[in-house]
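Inverse folding, one chain.
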């Protein structure tokens, strides 16, 4: 018996609300094939849109082009099968797909130009506006020819009204274009000011796909290099924030991971840089696109160059199974060769040397000139310190109810002292539970430093209550979260 539209839509809606990952992608592919074969045809556009989004946000954008081409052909031949949501999702898919074409050197420049022109024509017919198309032309020109050729498109983008469909795109995403334009112009002060403005705006989400990690990771080396009062504290906090976001889902942050390897190497943490690279070594040989792999490998090559030339670690052994290299020096040579080979493929497609020139600049980046202290320093309430406080291991007895804060010898009698001790234990247990609840809430929301502080506070209060096993578990949680930021 054939399924009804309502039955098929119900299944697709459940898939659409699954978290992005292999399970959702497999379910979307299975359902799209089922609808294609058995119907109902009214659900075909919906099924293709769900599959396209699943591929796009699970690091498999290249696979999305097949269902996207099918979706466009379907719209051109059977627009009656598209309801308002299907049409809206198609417009978003156009934006994702066209902007991603330049990331694959096998796609010709002529095809990219034609795709942007097709998007411009379709968006014009739909009355969407020109801002998204102008932004696509800006990034394509920046990639192919460099900042001077791209500048007219950027200036036009600035003054063009928001599109009717994409006008609700959050300011964090819009800020990304603005911030990286300032970085391209070597105007770091302006880039930081724009970044700060976006973060401070209560109307903006605290996170949006790759933000603020993408912008933050690009600004970190400059903050560490500038070294003005407050910059070190700020860089430490931003470093942790970037790590929390990127480490939670590395698939979406491969370029950011490369920046972090290079940042650690340039800011005086060569061993930590190597450990972080070994943790993320699989991205040396695989990524969502060749461009994303280039962004990772070139940053790693730049970081490894510093390990060899500035820290004398060329003979240090590396533990990376994906690459035929046994030492830091051999790995540096391999990553440099890979960087130049990938960049050459893009240059051949683009007919320019822009990508290779950019890659050489990345690999030649110098150290910040200062060693940035990345020690996790915390107040008992989870606030960052100004550096005058002790590291986390010295602050465990300052939480209310902690060991050493109650002295039963001041009581007037043994009975009074016993009652006071029981009351203190009860208070300590309440304090411990409150701190533990706060720690777990902060951990769920990605606030690692706040979570660590409250786990330590909970452990201290559990010790005061005599619950040593619970104290040990709380300390272990604090240690695990601290290790994840190393």
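Residues assigned per position:
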């Amino acid at each position: 018996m054939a399924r009804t539209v309502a039955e098929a839509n119900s299944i697709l809606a459940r898939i659409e609300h699954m978290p992005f990952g292999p399970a959702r992608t497999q379910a979307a592919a299975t359902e799209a094939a089922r609808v294609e074969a058995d119907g109902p045809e009214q659900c075909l556009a919906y099924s293709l849109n769900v599959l396209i989004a699943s591929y796009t946000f699970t690091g498999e954008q290249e696979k999305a082009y097949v269902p996207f081409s099918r979706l466009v052909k379907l719209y051109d031949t059977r627009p009656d099968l598209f309801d308002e949501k299907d049409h809206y999702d198609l417009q978003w898919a156009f934006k994702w797909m066209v902007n991603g074409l330049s990331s694959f050197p096998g796609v010709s420049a002529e095809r990219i130009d034609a795709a942007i022109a097709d998007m411009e024509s379709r968006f014009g017919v739909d009355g969407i506006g020109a801002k998204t198309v102008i932004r696509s032309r800006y990034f394509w020109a920046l990639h192919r020819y460099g900042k001077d050729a791209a500048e007219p498109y950027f200036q036009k983008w600035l003054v063009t009204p928001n599109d009717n469909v994409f006008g609700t795109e959050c300011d964090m995403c819009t800020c990304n274009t603005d911030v990286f334009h300032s970085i391209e112009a070597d105007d770091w002060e302006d880039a930081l000011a724009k970044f700060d403005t976006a973060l401070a705006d209560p109307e903006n989400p605290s996170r949006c796909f790759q933000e603020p990690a993408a912008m933050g990771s690009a600004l970190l080396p400059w903050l560490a290099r500038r070294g003005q009062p407050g910059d070190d504290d700020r860089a430490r906090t931003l470093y942790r924030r970037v790590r929390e976001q990127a480490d939670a889902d590395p698939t979406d942050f491969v370029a950011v991971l490369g920046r972090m390897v290079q940042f650690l190497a340039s800011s005086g943490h060569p061993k930590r840089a190597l450990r972080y690279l070994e943790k993320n070594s699989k991205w040396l040989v695989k990524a969502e696109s060749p461009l994303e792999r280039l962004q990772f490998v070139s940053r790693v090559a730049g970081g490894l160059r510093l390990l060899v030339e500035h820290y004398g670690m060329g003979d240090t052994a590396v533990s990376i199974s994906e690459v035929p290299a046994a030492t830091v020096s051999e790995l540096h040579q391999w990553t440099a060769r890979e960087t130049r080979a990938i960049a050459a493929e893009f240059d051949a497609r683009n007919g320019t040397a822009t990508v290779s020139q950019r890659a050489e600049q990345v690999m030649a980046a110098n150290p910040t000139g200062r060693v940035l202290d990345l020690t996790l320093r915390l107040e008992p309430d989870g606030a960052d310190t100004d550096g005058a406080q002790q590291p986390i291991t010295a602050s465990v007895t300052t939480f209310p109810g902690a060991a050493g804060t109650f002295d039963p010898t001041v009581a007037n009698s043994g009975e009074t002292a016993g009652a006071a001790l029981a009351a203190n234990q009860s208070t300590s247990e309440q304090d411990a539970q409150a701190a533990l609840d706060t720690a777990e809430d902060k951990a769920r929301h990605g606030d690692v430093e706040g979570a660590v502080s409250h786990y330590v506070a909970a452990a201290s209060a559990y010790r005061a209550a005599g619950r040593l096993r619970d104290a040990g578990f709380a300390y272990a949680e604090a240690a695990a979260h601290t290790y994840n930021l190393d």
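The mean pLDDT is 85. DSSP finds 20 helices and no strands in the chain.
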